[in-house]
Design a protein that fits this description.
three-stranded mixed sheet, membrane, 11 strands, Alpha-Beta Plaits, disordered N terminus, two-stranded antiparallel ribbon, alpha+beta, 4 iron, 4 sulfur cluster binding, elongated, disordered C terminus, 4Fe-4S ferredoxin-type domain-containing protein, 344 residues, 4Fe4S_Fe-S-bd, 4Fe-4S
C-alpha cells in the first residue's frame, strides 16, 4: 500500500497550556519585578528556606551611610537599607550590592546564626498540602477514565519503566511525520505528564516509519527495525456502530478498509433490516492499532472507528515477531461470526 501523505502543518494539542502558563507568568510581571520567582516558584521557595541556614552570607558593616543605593539596584528586593537587613532567602548572590557600594558597607562573611523562616510568604505548607491532595484526585478521576485510550508509540517499553526512562525531551513528537504523537496531560497520570502518546485522530502511525524509536535518546522507545516494528501491536481498532456510516446510515463507506495497511479491516456483506450492504469488520488478530483508519474516518468529531489499548504489547527486550503473527499476515482468514471490536 502506498504511503499516505499529510498536507496539514504540525499540531501540538497541549501547546495551549504552555502558552497560557507563559502568558500568566508574563502578566504577573506587571504586578512586580520577578513576581513568579519571588512569590510562586516552588523551587525558589525551597531554596529560600534552605538558604536561611547558610553559613556565609551578605551583611551590612557598621560604616553604612544609608544612601540606599544597594536597595535600589537589588534585583530581588532582598535589601532593606534603613533597617540594615538583607533577606538571605531572597538574595541570589548576584554581587551587585557588594561591588556598587562605594563605601564598602556590605561584606560577605561567616555568619552561622540562622534567620527565621518566613513560611507564610510563600505559602509553603499550603502549597504542599494542596499538591498532595490534588495528585491522587487527578489519578483517580482522570487517569482511570482516559487510560483505555493511552496509546504509546510502537516499541515503548512497559509503562513503569517507560515513565522512569522517558525524559520528556519531545524529540519523538517533533520527528513524527504524521504529527500523531502528542504530549500527555492527565492521560497517564501525574507521573506521565508530557510523555508521548499517539492520538490517531490527528495522525496515525505509518507502516514504514520507525523514526520515534531511532531518535529516542534514552531507550524509552526501542530502536526496532522496520519489519519488526510492523508487528508491534499498540492497540486495537473498535467500531462504533452508532456513528459508522455503513452501519448506522446504510451507506457504502470503505475508507477504513482502504486505509488499513495490514488488511485487518474487511468489508463484508451484512444484512440489517432487509438491507444487504458492505460493512466494515475488524480482525483483532491482525490489527496493530496504527490508527490510520481513525485518522481518515470521514465522520465529523470523534471517529466512528477508534483505537483502544486492547492487546497492547510492551516489551523491554525480545522480538515482537511470532510464528502466529507471521502466519496470519500470509494466510488471513475471514471468520463467519461477528468479530470482536464493536461497540454495541
Amino acid at each position: 500500500m502506498n504511503t499516505i501523505f499529510y498536507t496539514t502543518g504540525p499540531i501540538y494539542t497541549e501547546n495551549i497550556f504552555a502558552l497560557l502558563g507563559l502568558g500568566i507568568i508574563l502578566l504577573l510581571g506587571w504586578f512586580g519585578t520577578r513576581y513568579w520567582c519571588s512569590n510562586l516558584c516552588p523551587l525558589g521557595g525551597l531554596i529560600a528556606m534552605v538558604s536561611k541556614f547558610s553559613l556565609f552570607r551578605f551583611s551590612f558593616a557598621v560604616r553604612c551611610n544609608e544612601c540606599s543605593l544597594c536597595e535600589k539596584i537589588c534585583p530581588t528586593r532582598a535589601i532593606d537599607a534603613p533597617q540594615n537587613k538583607i533577606d538571605k532567602g531572597e538574595c541570589i548572590s548576584c554581587l551587585r550590592c557588594l561591588y556598587e557600594c562605594s563605601h564598602h558597607s556590605i561584606a560577605y562573611r561567616l555568619r552561622p546564626t540562622a534567620q527565621s523562616i518566613d513560611l507564610p510568604k510563600r505559602y509553603f505548607i499550603r502549597t504542599l498540602i494542596a499538591s498532595a491532595a490534588l495528585a491522587p484526585l487527578t489519578h483517580n478521576f482522570l487517569f482511570q477514565r482516559l487510560r483505555d485510550r493511552l496509546i504509546r508509540p510502537p516499541g515503548a517499553i512497559p509503562e513503569p519503566d517507560f515513565l522512569n526512562v522517558c525524559i520528556r525531551c519531545g524529540k519523538c513528537m517533533k520527528i513524527c511525520p504524521t504529527n500523531g504523537l502528542q504530549p500527555c496531560v492527565f492521560e497517564a497520570g501525574m507521573n506521565g505528564l508530557w510523555t508521548p502518546r499517539l492520538i490517531p485522530r490527528i495522525g496515525g502511525c505509518e507502516k514504514n516509519c520507525n523514526l520515534c524509536g531511532q531518535i529516542c535518546p534514552t531507550g524509552a522507545i526501542r530502536k526496532l527495525k522496520l519489519e519488526e516494528k510492523t508487528y508491534v501491536c499498540i492497540g486495537t481498532a473498535v467500531i462504533d456502530q452508532s456513528r459508522c456510516i455503513a452501519w448506522e446510515q446504510n451507506k457504502v463507506c470503505l475508507i477504513c478498509d482502504e486505509a488499513c495497511p495490514f488488511n485487518a479491516i474487511s468489508s463484508l456483506n451484512e444484512t440489517i433490516l432487509g438491507e444487504t450492504l458492505l460493512r466494515p469488520f475488524v480482525d483483532d488478530r491482525i490489527c496493530t492499532g496504527c490508527g490510520l483508519c481513525e485518522t481518515l474516518c470521514p465522520i465529523d468529531g470523534p471517529a466512528a472507528i477508534q483505537i483502544f489499548s486492547i492487546n497492547q504489547e510492551r516489551k523491554k527486550t525480545g522480538s515482537y515477531i511470532t510464528p502466529e503473527k507471521a502466519w496470519l499476515r500470509v494466510h488471513k482468514e475471514y471468520i463467519d461470526d461477528l468479530p470482536s471490536g464493536f461497540i454495541e
